[in-house]
User: Fold this.
Amino acid sequence: MNTLIRREYDYALRICAYLAGRYGQGRVPISRLAKVLLLSRPFTTKIVFRLKNEKIVTTVQGKDGGVYLTNPPDQVTVYDVLHAMGYNSRLNECLAEGHKCPMEDICRLHIFFQQQEEMLINNFKTKKLSEVIMTDGQLKKTVRESL
Amino acid sequence: MNTLIRREYDYALRICAYLAGRYGQGRVPISRLAKVLLLSRPFTTKIVFRLKNEKIVTTVQGKDGGVYLTNPPDQVTVYDVLHAMGYNSRLNECLAEGHKCPMEDICRLHIFFQQQEEMLINNFKTKKLSEVIMTDGQLKKTVRESL
DNA sequence: GTATATCTATACTTTTTTAGTATAATATAT
DNA sequence: ATATATTATACTAAAAAAGTATAGATATAC
Assistant:
């Protein structure tokens, strides 16, 4: 199966949605993120590393270190997170930069997909992290039920 | 790069958009489809084979054989073609059938992506082949210019 | 009835992408 | 000092996508 949102991107969003719920409440160690979000620890590490480089999250090393969301959740969008992770998905390859299809200008399919993609990206840019917060309470409940 | 519409699906759409422009005007051999749409012949063959099995196109063997659109272009949608090709792309894997995420019910990200996907599929179901026709005239012009 | 143009059906190969792991190093609170 | 964290990069394995090859069947024109 084929997805526009890769696993990594999805995990990154989960991590940010969780951190959004703890904004202003200190640092969360990666080990805890992994546990509560059902991710492997090395993979979580990798994703946090990318998010940190793009300044979506801030990290603190050492004992009592951990991760927190750099900016308030209502100032970060789903698109921001995807973009930070290197999101460059396209509905159709013919929409990609550098791709020069000789039919492009006359191709109504191209125009159609272009419109669809714009709409989607626009919605990603509108959706804020504050709207998709995952709280500890919710997570504990579902994880308990899934055991 | 990652796309929702695979190359095969895109080619299938092109083929159908072209056949839509010649609906009621007889059969088009695969060799011609490949040439005019800038596709390799074996690949075109493979795609036509799939479209035939799903009755999107009808094929006639033998000398003077070829391919034509089974139904009028205003009765076939972009979604019909994608579906025939085995389209099962999802925005996010967590939307896939059989995928059971323990957080699913409470996950606002899941709900958000679900909505986005519905919107997209709906638009695919609304767009008819008659709206994306590629004519011989257009194609010859662009191909000439690209040489 | 034969040659030829055409589709049929499946198997194979190559390349790319994705997903995930491992590890040695560095930082900090106590 | 030491225990607990993150850092940064390299590596591996599995899966998917893209495209090719080929032997065969079929229909038609002549």
